[in-house]
Write a structure and sequence with these properties.
This protein is an alpha+beta fold. It has helices at about 10-15, 20-45, 50-90, 125-140, 165-185, 210-215, 225-240, 240-255, and strands at about 100-105, 105-115, 145-150, 190-195, 215-225, 270-275, 280-285, 295. It has a domain at about 75-230 and about 270-295: 60s Ribosomal Protein L30, Chain: A, CATH 3.30.1330. The strands form two sheets. A five-stranded mixed β-sheet has the order 1-2-5-3-4. A three-stranded antiparallel β-sheet has the order 7-6-8, with helices on one face.
């Protein structure tokens, strides 16, 4: 006897195959793609105020860069012009064979052999040398430059009543040139003297020509440091807070002068060389302070 099997709707679902499962992944992909384009659209929207601010900042930055570039190029023309002026001013002196010039956009250096300026083992310039340095000072006195005078000697030992060694001779010669420049009008604060003795030769001391080349006075001219520092400080204060600076100036102008106490100017100090135990020279305005070192002999 056969048994009849009754099919239910559950049996139909069990044998039914689903062909629409790909719709789930497709829907997820469409959702992600929609979100991606929404984000891209929001990012692409330009804020006009921010754009103007960015444009102004870039313009100011590039303008400042152009100004700085002009400031960098300015010393080039200044030193080149100064070299031409010095060459023209000194053209009347017979120093062509004993003076050399060198430098770059930041400094200019004049090297003069000592035999054209001083007698042997002496620190007093000749009349021609005094005229030469006076003419040099006329060109430099109106320039915003620092002037350093360096004295150099050869390696031949020296010992005289006035100069016990080459250090003393080189320092005395440098100081005598500085004294001429100062008396001719170059501001004292822009002058300095350095003694090198025989420590920086430019030629071989074994030959007479080499020793002659090493006996020299070198005048190094560069842009004034205090002017550079003042310009940098002014630019920085203006860039950081121009309004504060204007208020400070206004407040200073409004302050009564009676409230400011009178301060007497400090008396001028005389700079004198002090010889260290190692042989070096120290130029100081307080030569009498105890330093465990000997005092260099003073000029007669």
């Amino acid at each position: 006897m056969r048994t009849r099997r009754t099919l239910s709707r559950f049996d139909d679902d069990e044998h039914k195959v689903g062909h629409e499962r790909w719709l789930v992944s497709y829907a997820d992909f469409i959702t992600l793609l929609f979100a991606f384009f929404v984000v891209m659209y929001s990012v692409s929207q330009v804020n006009e105020d921010k754009y103007r601010s960015l444009s102004a900042t870039l313009k100011a930055a590039f303008s400042e860069s152009d100004v700085k570039q002009a400031e960098v190029n300015e010393p080039v023309s200044t030193m080149a012009t100064l070299e031409s002026e010095l060459q023209e001013a000194l053209s009347g002196f017979p120093v062509d064979g004993t003076m050399t010039r060198s430098g770059n956009e930041n400094w200019l250096e004049l090297s003069l052999q000592s035999e054209s300026l001083f007698d042997s083992a002496e620190a007093s310039p000749s009349d021609e040398a005094r005229a030469l340095f006076s003419t040099l000072a006329e060109t430099l006195e109106s320039q915003q430059v620092d002037v350093q005078v360096g004295g150099h000697t050869d390696s031949v030992p020296i010992s005289t009543a006035r100069f016990e060694d080459n250090w003393a001779l080189s320092s005395a010669r440098a100081l005598s040139v500085v004294d001429i420049l100062a008396n001719a009008g170059v501001p004292d604060q822009r002058l300095s003297a350095v003694a090198y003795g025989e420590t920086r030769p430019v030629a071989d001391n074994a030959t007479e020509d080499g020793r002659r080349a090493n006996r020299r006075v070198v005048i190094r001219i560069s842009a004034a440091q205090d002017v550079l520092e003042t310009n940098d400080s002014s630019d920085l204060s203006t860039a950081l807070s121009p309004d504060v600076e204007e208020e400070s100036v206004a407040a200073a102008a409004a302050t009564p002068s009676d409230d400011v106490p009178d301060v007497a100017p400090a008396p001028p100090r005389t700079v004198a060389p002090v010889k260290l135990r190692g042989g070096d020279l120290l130029f100081t305005s307080d030569p009498d302070l105890p330093r465990l070192r000997e005092r260099a002999p003073e000029d007669d």
